[in-house]
Amino acid sequence: MSVVYDFKENIKKDELEKISKTLNNGGIVVFPTETVYGIGADATNSNAVKKIFDAKGRPQDNPLIVHISNLEMIEEYTYGVNAVEKKLIENFWPGPLTIILKSKNKLSNYVTAGLDTVGVRMPDNDIALNIIEASKKPIAAPSANVSGKPSGTKLSDIFEELNNKVDVFVDGGNTIIGIESTVVKVEKNVVNILRPGKISLEDIEKIGLKAKLDKHIFKDVKEGEKVESPGMKHRHYAPTTKAILVDFDDDKTMLNKIKEYKLNSNEKIGIICYKEHEEYLNSIGLKTIVMGKRDDLSEISRNIFSLIRSIDNYKLDVCFIEGVKRQYIGTAIMNRLIRACGYNIL
Ligand code: AMP
Ligand code: MG
User: Fold this and answer.
1) What's the Cα-to-Cα distance from 317 to each of 78, 199, 267, 287, rounded to whole Å?
2) Contact, 174 vs 303, CB < 8 A?
């Protein structure tokens, strides 16, 4: 049986100690970060890390992010950082930014999926930092969800699918950001964004660095095509219900296209939509699920995974999801939505 510790109000010392013992004994622990919930193990212990892959059903070619609580761990487990990486760390850590660094081979091969690099980040969440610090180990922690499903942003969304597969669940309430960290690799002094997140291209340019989005951020990976990050190849975030992204620059076209679809179909149609569109879409007979106000990208990112998880409850034939502007965290939201919809776009 998995045990649940409630750290919503405060971090309990005796339970923190039990968590660090569990991790040091090769157990696995679900805990909150500022992005999404993670499922963590001692990154130096292959038996422990293997359990994460088993619990998630994660393909073994997809490496895990290693979470650290102090900069000495960088020295210990990687060959260090260059000036650009240092600047990223100074500006964005602790925070939702994962940096791919050369690995020293002191970590389990399961963590790196056999690559000579490792993704490292320092989370901006007291519970996560305390757990890492208490265990005195780098903690490998992918998102807490069964592979293919949306990442968990609150415990109730993931409890059933991971219950009895992990030793401990730590409840820290809803995560603040709601989508996973930005993953970057610095090459020739350019910050290549392999997975967009809260730390955006614009944020990185604002501190005076050159940045670019990897070509696969909005595109499917073709069979046999080489990718910078193995996670790009895998099916992700999808509900069982057929989902279609509605992506138009102006609202009028967007609503007209949806209405046209509705008029020509006898399917039961739902839509994850902006608050501003709720009334109209209801009036033309769609089941509406509100993602937040159109311009509040933080609210949308906080809600989106939980809403995608909820789609299957409505027994719809098809569910539309309204797209957002591809700027700041909107780039990351669109990256997840395109995948959730399996590249189906209206
Ligand atoms: P998750 O752990 O579920 O948040 O996913 C981690 C993401 O980071 C996946 O898309 C991985 O493919 C990517 N990643 C982790 N380590 C590396 C690495 N060494 N090189 C490239 N991508 C990585
Ligand atoms: Mg994941």
Assistant:
1) 49, 35, 6, 11
2) no
Q: How far apart are CA 72 and CA 80, in angstroms?
A: 10
Q: How far is the CA of 311 from the centre of ligand 1 (A)?
A: 27
Per-residue model confidence (pLDDT) at position 238? 87
Specify which residues 210 forms β-bridges with. 190
Please tell me if the CB atom of residue 100 comes closer than 6 angstroms to any atom of ligand 1. yes
Both structure tokens of 77: 């487990």
CB 178 within 8 A of CB 36: yes
Do residues 105 and 118 touch, judged by C-beta distance below 8 A?
Answer: no
Pocket lining: 271 vs ligand 1, CB cutoff 6 Å: no
Kindly report the backbone phi and psi dihedral angles of residue 238, in degrees, each rounded to the nearest multiple of 5, phi listed first.
Answer: -90, 140
Per-residue pLDDT of 24-43, as tens digits, reads 999 999 999 999 999 999 99
Task: Identify the CA nearest to 311 among candidates 146, 179, 145, 157.
Answer: 157
Catalogue the E-assigned strands of 123-279: 139-140, 168-171, 182-187, 190-195, 210-213, 242-246, 269-274
CA–CA separation, 63 and 254 (whole Å): 38
Centroid of ligand 1 to alpha carbon of 254 (angstroms):
34
The model carries a pTM of: 0.96
Domains and CATH numbers, the chain: 3-213 (3.90.870.10), 242-340 (3.40.50.11030)
For residues 8 and 152, the answer to whether their CB atoms sit within 8 Å is: no
